[in-house]
Amino acid sequence: MKKILSILAFFVPLINQAQTNPVQKKAADFTKENATFLNNCYKQLHENPELSTKEVITANYLKTTIASYGYEIIDSLGYESFGAVLKNGNGPVILYRTDMDGLPVKEETGLTFASKATGQKENETYPVMHACGHDIHMTTWLGLAKLMVQTKKDWNGTLIFLAQSAEETAQGAKKIVSSPAYKKIPKPNYQLAIHDHAELLVGEMGFCDEYEMAAVDMMNITIYGKGGHGAAPQRCIDPILLSAQYITEIQSIISRNLAPIDPGVITVGAINGGTIGNVIPNQVVLKLTIRTFSKEARDIIMKRLKEIGDNLAKAAGLPSNLMPKYDLLDMSIPSVYNNPDLGKLLKQSIQKHFGNTAAVKIKPMMIGEDFSVYGQQLDSIPSYILWAGTLTPDRKAATALKANKEIPALHTSTFAPDFEQCIPQNIIMMNVVLMDLFKK
Ligand SMILES: [Zn+2]
Ligand SMILES: [Zn+2]
Protein backbone atom coordinates (compact mmCIF):
# COMPACT_ATOMS: atom_id res chain seq x y z
CA MET A 1 0.00 0.00 0.00
CA LYS A 2 2.86 2.36 0.88
CA LYS A 3 4.28 1.83 -2.61
CA ILE A 4 0.91 2.58 -4.19
CA LEU A 5 0.58 5.84 -2.26
CA SER A 6 4.07 6.93 -3.23
CA ILE A 7 3.27 6.13 -6.87
CA LEU A 8 0.06 8.11 -6.70
CA ALA A 9 1.99 11.03 -5.23
CA PHE A 10 4.43 10.80 -8.11
CA PHE A 11 1.70 11.04 -10.76
CA VAL A 12 0.54 14.49 -9.65
CA PRO A 13 3.84 16.34 -10.30
CA LEU A 14 4.23 14.33 -13.53
CA ILE A 15 1.06 15.89 -14.93
CA ASN A 16 2.03 19.40 -13.78
CA GLN A 17 5.50 19.03 -15.23
CA ALA A 18 4.04 17.91 -18.58
CA GLN A 19 2.23 21.22 -18.84
CA THR A 20 5.37 23.27 -18.33
CA ASN A 21 7.62 21.49 -20.84
CA PRO A 22 6.90 22.49 -24.48
CA VAL A 23 7.89 19.10 -26.01
CA GLN A 24 5.75 17.20 -23.53
CA LYS A 25 2.89 19.66 -23.86
CA LYS A 26 2.84 19.23 -27.64
CA ALA A 27 2.92 15.44 -27.25
CA ALA A 28 0.25 15.46 -24.54
CA ASP A 29 -1.99 17.73 -26.64
CA PHE A 30 -1.46 15.39 -29.60
CA THR A 31 -2.52 12.33 -27.63
CA LYS A 32 -5.63 14.15 -26.37
CA GLU A 33 -6.60 15.31 -29.88
CA ASN A 34 -5.98 11.79 -31.22
CA ALA A 35 -7.50 9.85 -28.33
CA THR A 36 -10.37 8.46 -30.42
CA PHE A 37 -8.04 7.50 -33.26
CA LEU A 38 -5.62 5.76 -30.87
CA ASN A 39 -8.34 3.90 -28.98
CA ASN A 40 -10.02 2.76 -32.19
CA CYS A 41 -6.71 1.73 -33.68
CA TYR A 42 -5.92 -0.35 -30.59
CA LYS A 43 -9.35 -1.97 -30.47
CA GLN A 44 -9.25 -2.81 -34.17
CA LEU A 45 -5.81 -4.39 -33.89
CA HIS A 46 -6.76 -6.18 -30.68
CA GLU A 47 -9.92 -7.65 -32.17
CA ASN A 48 -8.17 -8.89 -35.32
CA PRO A 49 -4.87 -10.51 -34.31
CA GLU A 50 -2.97 -12.66 -36.77
CA LEU A 51 -0.43 -15.41 -36.17
CA SER A 52 3.31 -15.05 -36.80
CA THR A 53 4.28 -14.63 -40.49
CA LYS A 54 0.59 -14.18 -41.38
CA GLU A 55 0.04 -10.56 -40.30
CA VAL A 56 -1.40 -9.60 -43.71
CA ILE A 57 -4.31 -7.36 -42.69
CA THR A 58 -2.36 -5.90 -39.77
CA ALA A 59 0.65 -4.97 -41.92
CA ASN A 60 -1.55 -3.52 -44.65
CA TYR A 61 -3.37 -1.31 -42.18
CA LEU A 62 -0.13 -0.04 -40.62
CA LYS A 63 1.50 0.46 -44.00
CA THR A 64 -1.34 2.41 -45.58
CA THR A 65 -1.71 4.58 -42.50
CA ILE A 66 1.97 5.42 -42.05
CA ALA A 67 2.38 6.01 -45.81
CA SER A 68 -0.47 8.54 -45.59
CA TYR A 69 1.66 10.51 -43.06
CA GLY A 70 4.39 10.90 -45.68
CA TYR A 71 6.75 8.03 -44.80
CA GLU A 72 8.48 6.22 -47.65
CA ILE A 73 7.70 2.50 -47.56
CA ILE A 74 10.41 -0.12 -47.95
CA ASP A 75 8.75 -3.42 -48.73
CA SER A 76 9.87 -7.01 -49.29
CA LEU A 77 11.56 -7.42 -45.92
CA GLY A 78 10.33 -10.99 -45.54
CA TYR A 79 6.92 -12.29 -44.45
CA GLU A 80 4.80 -9.13 -43.82
CA SER A 81 7.63 -6.95 -42.50
CA PHE A 82 8.20 -3.48 -43.93
CA GLY A 83 10.06 -0.28 -43.15
CA ALA A 84 8.76 3.31 -43.21
CA VAL A 85 11.40 6.02 -43.57
CA LEU A 86 11.09 9.72 -42.87
CA LYS A 87 14.07 11.86 -43.88
CA ASN A 88 14.10 15.24 -42.19
CA GLY A 89 17.45 16.93 -42.79
CA ASN A 90 20.85 16.12 -41.35
CA GLY A 91 21.00 14.39 -38.03
CA PRO A 92 21.08 10.98 -36.38
CA VAL A 93 19.37 7.97 -37.93
CA ILE A 94 17.07 6.26 -35.44
CA LEU A 95 15.29 2.96 -35.96
CA TYR A 96 12.17 2.23 -33.93
CA ARG A 97 10.68 -1.25 -34.19
CA THR A 98 7.26 -2.68 -33.53
CA ASP A 99 6.31 -6.32 -33.77
CA MET A 100 2.93 -7.30 -35.24
CA ASP A 101 2.06 -10.90 -34.38
CA GLY A 102 -0.49 -12.39 -32.03
CA LEU A 103 -0.31 -15.73 -30.20
CA PRO A 104 -2.28 -18.99 -30.44
CA VAL A 105 -4.16 -18.23 -27.21
CA LYS A 106 -7.94 -18.14 -26.66
CA GLU A 107 -8.81 -14.74 -25.23
CA GLU A 108 -10.68 -14.75 -21.91
CA THR A 109 -10.62 -11.07 -20.97
CA GLY A 110 -14.36 -10.56 -21.44
CA LEU A 111 -13.68 -7.23 -23.20
CA THR A 112 -16.30 -6.01 -25.68
CA PHE A 113 -13.62 -6.00 -28.37
CA ALA A 114 -12.06 -9.33 -27.33
CA SER A 115 -10.61 -11.36 -30.17
CA LYS A 116 -12.64 -14.15 -31.70
CA ALA A 117 -10.09 -14.59 -34.46
CA THR A 118 -8.60 -17.88 -35.51
CA GLY A 119 -5.49 -18.66 -37.51
CA GLN A 120 -3.89 -21.60 -39.31
CA LYS A 121 -0.64 -23.12 -38.17
CA GLU A 122 0.70 -26.37 -39.60
CA ASN A 123 -2.80 -27.25 -40.92
CA GLU A 124 -4.40 -26.78 -37.50
CA THR A 125 -6.79 -23.98 -36.57
CA TYR A 126 -5.98 -22.01 -33.43
CA PRO A 127 -7.68 -19.16 -31.60
CA VAL A 128 -5.52 -16.03 -31.81
CA MET A 129 -4.99 -13.26 -29.27
CA HIS A 130 -2.68 -10.30 -28.79
CA ALA A 131 -1.64 -11.84 -25.49
CA CYS A 132 1.83 -10.27 -25.61
CA GLY A 133 0.50 -6.74 -26.22
CA HIS A 134 1.99 -6.27 -29.68
CA ASP A 135 -1.19 -4.27 -30.38
CA ILE A 136 0.02 -1.78 -27.73
CA HIS A 137 3.39 -1.61 -29.51
CA MET A 138 1.75 -1.06 -32.91
CA THR A 139 -0.63 1.66 -31.75
CA THR A 140 2.20 3.46 -29.95
CA TRP A 141 4.34 3.11 -33.10
CA LEU A 142 1.65 4.53 -35.37
CA GLY A 143 0.76 7.38 -33.01
CA LEU A 144 4.42 8.27 -32.54
CA ALA A 145 4.97 8.20 -36.32
CA LYS A 146 2.12 10.69 -36.76
CA LEU A 147 3.37 12.95 -33.96
CA MET A 148 6.93 12.98 -35.36
CA VAL A 149 5.55 14.28 -38.67
CA GLN A 150 3.52 16.99 -36.95
CA THR A 151 6.59 18.12 -34.99
CA LYS A 152 9.02 17.94 -37.95
CA LYS A 153 10.21 21.49 -37.29
CA ASP A 154 11.52 20.47 -33.88
CA TRP A 155 14.01 17.78 -34.98
CA ASN A 156 16.53 16.87 -37.68
CA GLY A 157 17.57 13.42 -38.80
CA THR A 158 16.11 10.24 -40.24
CA LEU A 159 13.48 8.05 -38.67
CA ILE A 160 13.04 4.41 -39.60
CA PHE A 161 9.81 2.91 -38.33
CA LEU A 162 10.20 -0.84 -38.72
CA ALA A 163 7.18 -3.16 -38.56
CA GLN A 164 8.25 -6.74 -37.95
CA SER A 165 6.49 -10.03 -38.56
CA ALA A 166 6.93 -13.13 -36.45
CA GLU A 167 8.61 -11.99 -33.24
CA GLU A 168 7.00 -14.76 -31.23
CA THR A 169 8.50 -17.46 -33.42
CA ALA A 170 11.90 -15.71 -33.70
CA GLN A 171 11.68 -15.82 -37.50
CA GLY A 172 10.91 -12.19 -38.41
CA ALA A 173 14.09 -10.26 -37.62
CA LYS A 174 16.36 -12.88 -39.22
CA LYS A 175 14.26 -12.74 -42.37
CA ILE A 176 14.49 -8.93 -42.43
CA VAL A 177 18.27 -8.72 -42.10
CA SER A 178 18.80 -11.42 -44.72
CA SER A 179 16.46 -9.82 -47.26
CA PRO A 180 18.07 -7.82 -50.10
CA ALA A 181 15.65 -4.92 -49.44
CA TYR A 182 17.16 -4.45 -45.95
CA LYS A 183 20.11 -2.73 -47.67
CA LYS A 184 17.75 0.10 -48.69
CA ILE A 185 17.28 0.98 -45.03
CA PRO A 186 19.81 3.60 -43.87
CA LYS A 187 22.21 2.32 -41.20
CA PRO A 188 20.91 3.53 -37.83
CA ASN A 189 22.92 5.29 -35.14
CA TYR A 190 20.45 4.01 -32.56
CA GLN A 191 17.87 1.21 -32.50
CA LEU A 192 14.95 1.28 -30.12
CA ALA A 193 11.91 -0.77 -29.22
CA ILE A 194 9.50 -1.00 -26.35
CA HIS A 195 7.86 -4.02 -24.83
CA ASP A 196 4.86 -3.71 -22.59
CA HIS A 197 5.33 -4.93 -19.03
CA ALA A 198 2.33 -6.41 -17.25
CA GLU A 199 3.29 -5.16 -13.78
CA LEU A 200 4.91 -1.77 -14.34
CA LEU A 201 2.69 1.24 -13.87
CA VAL A 202 1.67 3.54 -16.70
CA GLY A 203 4.35 6.23 -16.72
CA GLU A 204 7.13 3.87 -15.65
CA MET A 205 9.81 2.78 -18.12
CA GLY A 206 11.85 -0.29 -17.25
CA PHE A 207 15.61 -0.25 -17.86
CA CYS A 208 17.97 -3.20 -17.94
CA ASP A 209 21.46 -2.27 -19.12
CA GLU A 210 23.68 -4.85 -20.84
CA TYR A 211 22.21 -8.36 -21.14
CA GLU A 212 18.44 -8.06 -20.82
CA MET A 213 17.15 -11.20 -22.50
CA ALA A 214 18.75 -14.50 -23.39
CA ALA A 215 20.07 -16.12 -26.52
CA VAL A 216 17.64 -18.89 -27.41
CA ASP A 217 18.56 -22.23 -28.96
CA MET A 218 16.24 -25.16 -29.48
CA MET A 219 17.76 -28.61 -29.93
CA ASN A 220 16.44 -32.12 -30.53
CA ILE A 221 18.74 -34.89 -29.35
CA THR A 222 18.23 -38.50 -30.40
CA ILE A 223 19.71 -41.00 -27.94
CA TYR A 224 20.17 -44.36 -29.59
CA GLY A 225 20.21 -47.77 -27.95
CA LYS A 226 19.66 -51.41 -28.81
CA GLY A 227 16.07 -52.45 -28.27
CA GLY A 228 14.70 -55.77 -27.12
CA HIS A 229 12.63 -57.54 -24.49
CA GLY A 230 12.12 -55.61 -21.29
CA ALA A 231 12.83 -58.79 -19.32
CA ALA A 232 16.25 -59.28 -20.95
CA PRO A 233 18.07 -55.97 -20.49
CA GLN A 234 21.44 -57.75 -20.59
CA ARG A 235 20.92 -58.25 -24.34
CA CYS A 236 19.98 -54.61 -24.93
CA ILE A 237 21.43 -51.15 -24.54
CA ASP A 238 18.62 -49.22 -22.92
CA PRO A 239 18.18 -45.70 -24.37
CA ILE A 240 15.61 -44.87 -21.66
CA LEU A 241 18.19 -45.40 -18.91
CA LEU A 242 20.79 -43.58 -21.01
CA SER A 243 18.41 -40.64 -21.47
CA ALA A 244 17.74 -40.49 -17.74
CA GLN A 245 21.50 -40.40 -17.05
CA TYR A 246 22.01 -37.79 -19.76
CA ILE A 247 19.21 -35.51 -18.54
CA THR A 248 20.61 -35.59 -15.02
CA GLU A 249 24.23 -35.19 -16.08
CA ILE A 250 23.73 -32.19 -18.39
CA GLN A 251 22.52 -30.10 -15.43
CA SER A 252 26.12 -30.29 -14.18
CA ILE A 253 27.07 -28.11 -17.17
CA ILE A 254 25.18 -25.25 -15.52
CA SER A 255 26.48 -25.95 -12.02
CA ARG A 256 30.06 -27.03 -12.83
CA ASN A 257 31.15 -25.81 -16.27
CA LEU A 258 29.71 -22.30 -16.41
CA ALA A 259 31.11 -19.51 -14.32
CA PRO A 260 28.61 -18.93 -11.51
CA ILE A 261 28.02 -15.32 -12.60
CA ASP A 262 27.47 -16.24 -16.26
CA PRO A 263 23.96 -17.65 -16.40
CA GLY A 264 22.62 -20.45 -18.50
CA VAL A 265 19.53 -22.64 -18.61
CA ILE A 266 19.13 -26.12 -20.05
CA THR A 267 15.56 -27.37 -20.02
CA VAL A 268 14.52 -30.72 -21.39
CA GLY A 269 10.91 -29.99 -22.26
CA ALA A 270 9.98 -33.28 -23.92
CA ILE A 271 11.06 -36.94 -23.77
CA ASN A 272 9.69 -39.16 -26.48
CA GLY A 273 10.59 -42.82 -26.47
CA GLY A 274 9.15 -46.26 -26.00
CA THR A 275 5.66 -47.69 -26.36
CA ILE A 276 5.01 -50.21 -23.61
CA GLY A 277 6.53 -51.32 -20.30
CA ASN A 278 8.04 -54.60 -21.46
CA VAL A 279 9.86 -53.39 -24.57
CA ILE A 280 13.21 -51.58 -24.56
CA PRO A 281 13.05 -49.17 -27.50
CA ASN A 282 15.76 -48.38 -30.04
CA GLN A 283 15.82 -44.64 -29.42
CA VAL A 284 14.59 -41.71 -27.35
CA VAL A 285 14.20 -38.15 -28.61
CA LEU A 286 14.75 -35.26 -26.19
CA LYS A 287 13.62 -31.72 -26.95
CA LEU A 288 15.64 -28.98 -25.28
CA THR A 289 15.77 -25.25 -24.96
CA ILE A 290 19.09 -23.64 -24.10
CA ARG A 291 19.31 -20.07 -22.79
CA THR A 292 22.46 -18.01 -22.29
CA PHE A 293 23.64 -14.41 -22.21
CA SER A 294 27.29 -14.66 -23.26
CA LYS A 295 28.73 -16.35 -26.32
CA GLU A 296 31.24 -18.10 -24.02
CA ALA A 297 28.45 -19.72 -21.98
CA ARG A 298 26.68 -20.81 -25.16
CA ASP A 299 29.86 -22.34 -26.60
CA ILE A 300 30.56 -24.25 -23.37
CA ILE A 301 27.01 -25.65 -23.23
CA MET A 302 27.05 -26.76 -26.87
CA LYS A 303 30.44 -28.45 -26.46
CA ARG A 304 29.54 -30.19 -23.20
CA LEU A 305 26.12 -31.40 -24.43
CA LYS A 306 27.95 -33.36 -27.12
CA GLU A 307 30.86 -34.52 -24.94
CA ILE A 308 28.55 -35.85 -22.22
CA GLY A 309 26.18 -37.46 -24.72
CA ASP A 310 28.92 -39.19 -26.73
CA ASN A 311 30.80 -40.39 -23.66
CA LEU A 312 27.71 -41.77 -21.94
CA ALA A 313 26.83 -43.59 -25.17
CA LYS A 314 30.35 -45.02 -25.38
CA ALA A 315 30.27 -46.07 -21.71
CA ALA A 316 26.98 -47.85 -22.38
CA GLY A 317 28.74 -49.87 -25.09
CA LEU A 318 27.26 -48.24 -28.18
CA PRO A 319 29.34 -48.32 -31.39
CA SER A 320 30.53 -45.07 -33.03
CA ASN A 321 27.69 -45.13 -35.57
CA LEU A 322 25.15 -44.96 -32.74
CA MET A 323 26.40 -41.84 -31.02
CA PRO A 324 23.56 -39.40 -30.19
CA LYS A 325 22.36 -37.05 -32.94
CA TYR A 326 22.28 -33.36 -32.00
CA ASP A 327 19.92 -31.31 -34.19
CA LEU A 328 20.08 -27.58 -33.55
CA LEU A 329 16.80 -26.18 -34.90
CA ASP A 330 16.85 -23.19 -37.22
CA MET A 331 15.38 -20.94 -34.52
CA SER A 332 18.47 -19.61 -32.75
CA ILE A 333 18.58 -15.94 -31.78
CA PRO A 334 21.31 -14.02 -29.95
CA SER A 335 20.87 -12.45 -26.53
CA VAL A 336 19.43 -8.95 -26.22
CA TYR A 337 22.23 -6.59 -25.23
CA ASN A 338 21.05 -3.16 -24.16
CA ASN A 339 23.84 -0.68 -24.79
CA PRO A 340 24.62 0.95 -21.41
CA ASP A 341 25.74 4.29 -22.93
CA LEU A 342 22.49 4.55 -24.84
CA GLY A 343 20.71 3.44 -21.66
CA LYS A 344 22.28 6.36 -19.82
CA LEU A 345 21.01 8.83 -22.45
CA LEU A 346 17.52 7.33 -22.37
CA LYS A 347 17.42 7.29 -18.58
CA GLN A 348 18.56 10.93 -18.37
CA SER A 349 15.87 11.88 -20.82
CA ILE A 350 13.10 10.02 -18.97
CA GLN A 351 14.20 11.25 -15.53
CA LYS A 352 14.62 14.86 -16.66
CA HIS A 353 11.11 15.03 -18.07
CA PHE A 354 9.15 12.62 -15.91
CA GLY A 355 11.02 12.46 -12.61
CA ASN A 356 13.50 9.96 -11.18
CA THR A 357 10.89 7.35 -10.28
CA ALA A 358 9.74 7.05 -13.91
CA ALA A 359 12.91 5.06 -14.71
CA VAL A 360 12.64 1.66 -13.05
CA LYS A 361 15.44 -0.88 -12.91
CA ILE A 362 14.34 -4.28 -14.25
CA LYS A 363 16.29 -7.49 -13.76
CA PRO A 364 17.43 -9.52 -16.79
CA MET A 365 15.29 -12.46 -17.84
CA MET A 366 16.03 -15.67 -19.73
CA ILE A 367 13.20 -15.11 -22.22
CA GLY A 368 14.14 -14.32 -25.83
CA GLU A 369 13.48 -11.42 -28.23
CA ASP A 370 14.64 -11.30 -31.82
CA PHE A 371 15.25 -7.54 -31.63
CA SER A 372 18.76 -8.81 -30.83
CA VAL A 373 19.19 -9.81 -34.46
CA TYR A 374 19.48 -6.20 -35.73
CA GLY A 375 23.25 -6.08 -35.43
CA GLN A 376 23.42 -5.32 -31.73
CA GLN A 377 26.48 -7.37 -31.09
CA LEU A 378 28.24 -7.86 -34.41
CA ASP A 379 27.80 -4.36 -35.84
CA SER A 380 27.58 -2.78 -32.39
CA ILE A 381 24.71 -0.49 -33.24
CA PRO A 382 23.67 0.94 -29.87
CA SER A 383 20.28 -0.63 -29.22
CA TYR A 384 17.83 -0.73 -26.35
CA ILE A 385 14.46 -2.28 -25.54
CA LEU A 386 12.58 -0.42 -22.86
CA TRP A 387 9.89 -2.05 -20.76
CA ALA A 388 6.76 0.12 -20.82
CA GLY A 389 4.22 0.17 -17.98
CA THR A 390 0.65 -0.92 -18.75
CA LEU A 391 -1.06 -0.88 -15.38
CA THR A 392 -2.95 2.01 -13.78
CA PRO A 393 -2.44 2.61 -10.04
CA ASP A 394 -6.20 2.05 -9.59
CA ARG A 395 -6.09 -1.42 -11.10
CA LYS A 396 -2.93 -2.29 -9.20
CA ALA A 397 -4.64 -1.21 -5.97
CA ALA A 398 -7.80 -3.17 -6.86
CA THR A 399 -5.72 -6.28 -7.64
CA ALA A 400 -3.90 -5.97 -4.32
CA LEU A 401 -7.25 -6.43 -2.56
CA LYS A 402 -8.14 -9.60 -4.46
CA ALA A 403 -7.56 -13.03 -2.97
CA ASN A 404 -4.95 -14.28 -5.46
CA LYS A 405 -3.42 -10.78 -5.98
CA GLU A 406 -2.29 -11.79 -9.45
CA ILE A 407 -2.00 -9.40 -12.36
CA PRO A 408 -2.41 -11.37 -15.62
CA ALA A 409 1.05 -11.87 -17.12
CA LEU A 410 2.10 -11.57 -20.76
CA HIS A 411 1.04 -14.59 -22.84
CA THR A 412 -1.97 -15.33 -20.62
CA SER A 413 -5.56 -15.38 -21.87
CA THR A 414 -6.63 -12.62 -19.45
CA PHE A 415 -3.83 -10.13 -20.17
CA ALA A 416 -5.57 -6.77 -20.56
CA PRO A 417 -3.34 -3.69 -20.41
CA ASP A 418 -4.86 -0.30 -19.53
CA PHE A 419 -4.56 0.82 -23.14
CA GLU A 420 -6.38 4.15 -22.83
CA GLN A 421 -3.71 5.32 -20.40
CA CYS A 422 -0.56 3.47 -21.44
CA ILE A 423 -0.65 4.16 -25.20
CA PRO A 424 -0.74 7.98 -24.87
CA GLN A 425 1.90 7.79 -22.12
CA ASN A 426 4.15 5.58 -24.30
CA ILE A 427 3.82 8.06 -27.15
CA ILE A 428 4.66 11.04 -24.94
CA MET A 429 7.65 9.29 -23.38
CA MET A 430 9.06 7.89 -26.62
CA ASN A 431 8.57 11.27 -28.29
CA VAL A 432 10.65 12.94 -25.58
CA VAL A 433 13.29 10.22 -25.91
CA LEU A 434 13.48 10.63 -29.70
CA MET A 435 13.61 14.42 -29.48
CA ASP A 436 16.52 14.23 -27.01
CA LEU A 437 18.35 11.62 -29.12
CA PHE A 438 17.99 13.74 -32.25
CA LYS A 439 19.86 16.50 -30.43
CA LYS A 440 22.88 14.19 -29.95
ZN1 LIG B 1 5.54 -12.68 -26.47
ZN1 LIG C 1 6.07 -9.70 -27.14
Strand content: 15-25%
Which small-molecule species are bound to the chains here? zinc ion
Report the radius of gyration as a whole number of Å.
Answer: 25 Å
Structural class: alpha+beta
Helicity level, as a percent range?
25-40%
Per the principal axes of the C-alpha atoms, what is the gross shape?
elongated
Number of helices: 11
Element-level helix/strand string: HHHHEEEEEHEHEEEEEHEEEHEEHEEHH
The CA-CA distance between the termini, in Å, is: 40 Å
Largest sheet: 8 strands, mixed
**Beta strand count:** 18
Strand order of the largest sheet: 1-2-6-3-7-18-8-17
Return the average pLDDT rounded to an integer. Answer: 94
Note poorly predicted spans: 1-10, 12-19
Which secondary structure elements does this structure contain, and how are they paired or packed?
Layout: H1 2-20, H2 22-33, H3 35-47, H4 56-68, E1 72-74, E2 82-88, E3 93-99, E4 118-121, E5 124-127, H5 134-150, E6 157-164, H6 172-178, E7 190-201, E8 205-207, E9 210-213, E10 215-224, E11 228-229, H7 239-257, E12 264-273, E13 279-280, E14 283-292, H8 295-315, E15 325-328, E16 336-338, H9 340-354, E17 359-361, E18 383-391, H10 393-401, H11 419-438
Parallel strand pairs: 3-6, 3-7, 7-18, 8-17
Antiparallel strand pairs: 1-2, 2-6, 4-5, 8-18, 9-16, 10-14, 10-15, 11-13, 12-14
Helix pairs in contact: 2-11, 3-5, 3-11, 5-11, 7-8, 9-11
The structure holds zinc ion (2 copies).
The site of one zinc ion has 4 residues, from loops.
